[in-house]
Amino acid sequence: xxxxxxxxxxxxxxxxxxxxxxxxxxxxxxxxxxxxxxxxxxxxxxxxxxxxxxxxxxxxxxxxxxxxxxxxxxxxxxxxxxxxxxxxxxxxxxxxxxxxxxxxxxxxxxxxxxxxxxxxxxxxxxxxxxxxxxxxxxxxxxxxxxxxxxxxxxxxxxxxxxxxxxxxxxxxxxxxxxxxxx
Length: 182
Known about the structure:
By secondary structure, the chain is an alpha/beta fold. The protein has helices at residues 21-32, 52-58, 89-96, 106-113, 139-142, 162-172; strands spanning 37-41, 63-69, 76-82, 102-103, 133-138, 146-149, 156-161, 177-180.
């Protein structure tokens, strides 16, 4: 029998030992805003496909989070969509009225969201104090009770009520969401 790579479920902030400050800042903000969460720890998981055991343990579908930009690298977008859905650039571009979208370079991800590839998460918007990143969420994600995401570090995953993200977190970090149908 293969041993699980995913920890037990925790509902409290972890010890800061061995954790990056940016991850601990997520837990501190969630606590400050009164947003309960369930957390599991695991080896680094950079893709939705690698998160199947996490999804099963937390009873959720992990979101696919894409950090995109336009050709001039002047407009940046965070797109949340169901993990199993395929991303079609043309379809998304048409809905938001921006052509020639591509994945944004890593340096912008770090500059605006303080995250690295594989750790992209809606929670990174807490670091976008200049409001450079527009949030787009697929309607299917909004209709789920919970959102699954990383706490700005892909060695843990969280289950958070969707309504808490929408009604508490986003207003606090001064970001609006735009709904798309992909």
